[in-house]
Amino acid sequence: MANTTAPFLSHHELHKAILAIKILVTWNEESRLCANISTSSDRFTSALHQNKDWAAQIAKEDPSLFPTLANGQYPEILWIGCSDSRCPETTVLGLKPGDVFVHRNIANILHAGDLSSSAVIEYAVRYLQVKHIVLSGHTSCGGVAAALGNKQLGILDPWLLPLRQLRQQNLDLLNSMTPEQANLKLVELNVLEGVKLLKQKNVVLEAIEQRGLQIHGLIYDVACGVLRQLDTDESEEAIKARLTSFKTDV
Ligand SMILES: [Zn+2]
User: Which domains does the chain have, with CATH numbers?
Assistant: First the structure.
């Protein structure tokens, strides 16, 4: 019985049939492997596929959004935050593309001479006429933790310098705290320092005076997704002294 079909196939035909089956099995395995790569093991590939679904979903929910954005941007918020992957500003604010103009860097540090952040601020305030500038730090910030440690970090050392200066200025307070408390305190001090620096920029001062631009200092809690507003109010005297010292005319 084992030979019932064999007489109908020549040796050559049998060899071809076996080869065809082998190719089919290999192709199936490869397909399965590719499917696995694109769906689970490669986050970028799957994200690229998800993008098409996302764009279709947004276009369905809000058909005018993409055509409107194609004609220009009118964001009301400039967000300055940390590059940390856990702090995606537009997502955590529940907003959409076109709502937030963004600058993010390690530990949301504003250096007075930093061309990148300065250009973003200038463009957002002078040309986009944003109504709010948000400077946000976040809990468990790696940059802040690094500045509270004493390891050499290469190019990150000059970048983190303002944080180390804040650490120096508040050393007794920070040393009296647990590592978690000290981390959060330095996060807050860094945001308050950044808000101070923002208000020393002429383009920002002008916009505050002329059209009521508002500056906000926030802390984002990565453990619960909630934003907390810091008190950045100044006394009349402090405002007067700041304007006298930093306001310049053309
Ligand atoms: Zn961070």
Answer: 10-61 (no CATH), 73-246 (3.40.1050.10)
What is the Å distance from ligand 1's center to 90 Cα? 16
| Residue 198 amino acid letter | L
CA pair distance 102, 80, nearest whole angstrom:
6
Q: Please return the burial class of 58, using the count of CB atoms within 10 Å of its CB with bins 0-12, 13-18 and 19+.
A: middle
For residue 143, the CA-to-ligand 1 centroid distance in Å is 6
**CB distance 192 to 232 below 8 Å:** yes
Distance 74 CA to ligand 1 centre (A): 27
Q: What is the pTM of this model?
A: 0.83
Compute mean pLDDT per 10 residues along the chain, 250 residues long, and list them: 49 62 54 50 92 97 98 98 98 98 98 96 98 98 98 97 98 97 98 97 96 98 98 91 88
Distance CA 230, CA 136 (A): 10
Does 99 appear as a known binding residue? no
- 15 among annotated binding-site residues: no
Residue with tokens 């970028």: 44
